[in-house]
Design the sequence.
């Protein structure tokens, strides 16, 4: 694999060899398809000898290599891309170029070298090749080839067939068996090609052709053993197939002997024929998503651009830097693209989505190197969906598992901004077949449990029996192994853990007493407190602030638990429907520890809208917070207006928005006398229209709930109200939506020691 500065003819390989330098050039892979496996296996096995192993170049991502030479053959017969270049074993291996075909150059390599390879081949009449290597990995350091695991997977390998077990079959990913790899002492990786960059290859070809331009008989001087007849090989292959077909036709009335692979393919095709009709129904149905918007989120320096609906559920992701935009529902693409553009993302998209309207009910999952195309079904998580095919963006190849799906999946990819160069039909790998069988017969529903929880038996009794199961569950939906038992002690110090300290102080509105420690009242772990005697560990504080349950779009027993928790909180703690922000502060009397425990558990059972995780095809969209309150029957009189949801507070006062109601219910709950809609004093400039405040307290204090400050006219009116209060010596208290979890501090001067309405 030494670097040379000219193209030279190698008589042993029968190839014009393009030089390569491991220190400067890239080691490229190539696309291998199912029909290439026999030739690839023969090529690798013929070179898999211990004496051929060499140290790996510094740039190679492996432990050792076996140097090889391969042929690069232009394939204008390729129906999908006439520029295609085949990677083949050298002519010395024998057989036609079709017999020696190992795969095709990826599109990226084809763009770099394809033109030069075609020109060199056509003008010299001599096969062209390049250097490369077979990657080898150390067996002991490569966990993929753990000896016990491989023996279990391949079974008894001493069957006299090259060490391959009875269940093992060569594949494009694994053309060599475990026993054959074990014999050479290395795990065998892919074949890599060593090719220079575009300019270098072009310069080498130009120099060679210029030097040999004066040799008109160069074609005749080419060694006789060199493969020169691609057309002849294709004609011979066609003749062989015709003879075999005629023989089968004469013997059994059919053109070919059906194999198990043929029968499996026919079954897949038959099962897929009904899908296009169901997809037509799907495309014409409403998707039910509203208020799409794009956001950028960064976690540990990993940035993602997401598309969310109005309830905060993720419905898509734009994969930086150049896409694609993947969606949970392809019907949302136009709205999602608009949301990305509004967010400032310069996204490329098909010019006319309407012309690509024959898309399937399928989702694209972008993985490492390939895109998996999956078919949604109600109630199933994305990872549990059956795979219908896959796309290799490097080679531009779409592989489908059933012929009737080819056209629709091609349209789907074009809507994702790519056009497949090659569409093939192939059998799914064994692991995909097993996965698809599980998806068909045992669909995996999305669990409504988002976080593990465990509380003691005594605490569970604070919640009605039907709902206790959600207090002892894991995200998979199963109960913990020792449900209700006390957890082992956990040294979680609020002095060293700022997250714990902030969560505890936010929930109880007081600083943590770092000198006091006791068992958590819910789970038994070691904990600290912000109120005397109320010890709650970091885990339980986190569950109270984030919830155990999440919205899956599929109602069930968990929904009943949510309704119970919301109604209980409304009745015992808020005297009305709470806001999300109010859940961040426990407001029941701290002198009643049992009621505090119950308030914490109810927060466990309340899903936060941002945590929703819908199935691939949910029965309904995720609920917003207002919709959850309405579902719990807490907004029976609510009416949507331009100002918000108008509703009557618990004390009968009419509120123009839920924000106003939260404040009104708080004042009522704590027994603070409040008169709605008091009039501001008249003023010839500041108040000519009869301005009113939201409430007046017993001592004459005016209270304003400021919910629309982003509107210019509203903000100007608030400014006039503040100036009126200043000029007339009125005490004015203003509350914004961000203050809802601070209402006890804001109204501390008017609050009694205990609420006026308790359970």
Sequence:
């Amino acid at each position: 694999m030494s670097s040379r500065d000219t193209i030279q003819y190698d008589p042993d390989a029968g190839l014009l060899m393009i030089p390569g330098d491991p220190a400067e050039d890239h080691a490229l892979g190539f696309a291998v398809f199912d029909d290439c496996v026999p030739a690839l296996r023969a090529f690798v096995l013929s070179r898999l000898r211990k004496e051929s192993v060499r140290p790996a170049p510094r740039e190679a991502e492996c432990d050792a290599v076996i140097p090889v030479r391969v042929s690069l053959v232009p394939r204008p017969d390729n129906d999908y891309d006439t520029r295609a270049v085949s990677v083949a074993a050298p002519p010395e291996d024998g057989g036609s170029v079709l017999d020696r075909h190992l795969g095709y150059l990826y599109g990226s390599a084809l763009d770099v070298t394809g033109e030069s390879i075609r020109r060199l081949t056509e003008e010299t009449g001599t096969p062209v090749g390049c250097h490369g290597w077979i990657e080898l990995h150390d067996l002991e350091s490569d966990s993929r080839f753990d000896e016990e695991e491989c023996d279990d997977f391949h079974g008894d390998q001493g069957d006299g067939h090259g060490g391959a077990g009875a269940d093992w079959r060569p594949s494009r990913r694994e053309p060599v068996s475990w026993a054959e790899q074990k014999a050479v002492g290395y795990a065998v990786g892919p074949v890599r090609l060593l090719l220079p960059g575009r300019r270098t290859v072009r310069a080498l070809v130009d120099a060679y052709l210029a030097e040999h331009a004066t040799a008109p008989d160069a074609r005749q001087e080419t060694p006789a053993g060199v493969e020169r007849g691609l057309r002849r090989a294709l004609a011979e292959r066609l003749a062989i197939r015709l003879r075999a077909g005629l023989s089968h036709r004469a013997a059994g009335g059919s053109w070919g002997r059906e194999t198990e692979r043929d029968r499996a393919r026919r079954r897949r095709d038959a099962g897929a024929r009904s899908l296009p009709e169901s997809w037509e129904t799907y495309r014409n149905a409403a998707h039910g998503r509203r208020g799409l918007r794009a956001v950028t989120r960064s976690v540990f320096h990993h940035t993602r651009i997401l598309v969310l609906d109005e309830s905060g559920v993720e419905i898509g992701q734009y994969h930086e830097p150049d896409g694609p935009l993947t969606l949970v529902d392809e019907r949302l693409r136009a709205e999602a693209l608009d949301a990305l553009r509004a967010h400032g993302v310069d996204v490329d998209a098909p010019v006319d989505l309407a012309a690509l309207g024959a898309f399937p009910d399928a989702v694209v999952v972008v993985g490492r190197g390939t895109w998996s195309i999956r078919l949604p079904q109600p109630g199933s998580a994305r990872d549990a969906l059956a795979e219908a095919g896959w796309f290799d963006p490097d080679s531009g190849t779409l592989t489908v598992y059933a012929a009737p799906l080819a056209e629709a999946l091609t349209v789907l990819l074009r809507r994702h901004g790519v056009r497949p160069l090659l569409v093939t039909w192939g059998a799914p790998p064994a692991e995909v077949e097993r996965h698809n069988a599980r998806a068909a017969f045992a669909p995996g529903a999305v669990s409504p449990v988002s976080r593990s929880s465990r509380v003691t038996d005594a605490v569970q009794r604070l919640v009605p029996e039907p709902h206790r199961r959600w207090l002892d569950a894991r995200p998979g939906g199963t109960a913990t192994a020792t449900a209700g038992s006390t957890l082992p002690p956990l040294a979680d110090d609020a002095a060293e853990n700022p997250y714990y300290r902030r969560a505890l102080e936010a929930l109880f509105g007081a600083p943590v007493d770092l000198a006091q420690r006791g068992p958590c009242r819910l789970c038994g772990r070691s904990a600290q407190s912000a109120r005397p005697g109320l010890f709650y560990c970091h885990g339980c504080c986190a569950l109270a602030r984030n919830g155990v349950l999440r919205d899956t779009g599929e109602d069930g027993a968990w929904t009943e638990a949510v309704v119970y928790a919301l109604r209980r909180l409304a009745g015992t703690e808020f005297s009305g429907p709470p806001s999300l922000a109010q859940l961040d502060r426990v407001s029941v009397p701290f002198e009643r520890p049992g009621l505090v425990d119950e308030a914490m558990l109810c927060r466990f059972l309340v899903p936060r809208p941002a945590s929703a995780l819908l199935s691939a095809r949910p029965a309904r969209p995720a609920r917003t917070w207002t919709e959850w309150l309405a579902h719990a029957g807490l907004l029976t009189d609510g009416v949507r207006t331009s100002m918000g949801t108008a509703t009557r507070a618990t004390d009968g006062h009419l509120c123009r928005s839920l924000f106003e109601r939260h404040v009104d219910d708080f004042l009522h709950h704590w027994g603070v006398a409040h008169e709605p809609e008091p009039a501001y004093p008249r003023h010839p400039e500041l108040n000519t229209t009869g301005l009113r405040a939201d409430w007046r307290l017993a001592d004459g204090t005016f209270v304003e709930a400021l919910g629309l400050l982003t509107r210019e006219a509203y903000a100007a009116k608030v400014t006039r109200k503040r100036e009126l209060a200043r000029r007339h010596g009125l005490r004015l208290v203003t509350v914004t939506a961000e203050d809802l979890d601070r209402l006890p501090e804001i109204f501390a001067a008017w609050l009694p020691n205990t609420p006026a309405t308790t359970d």
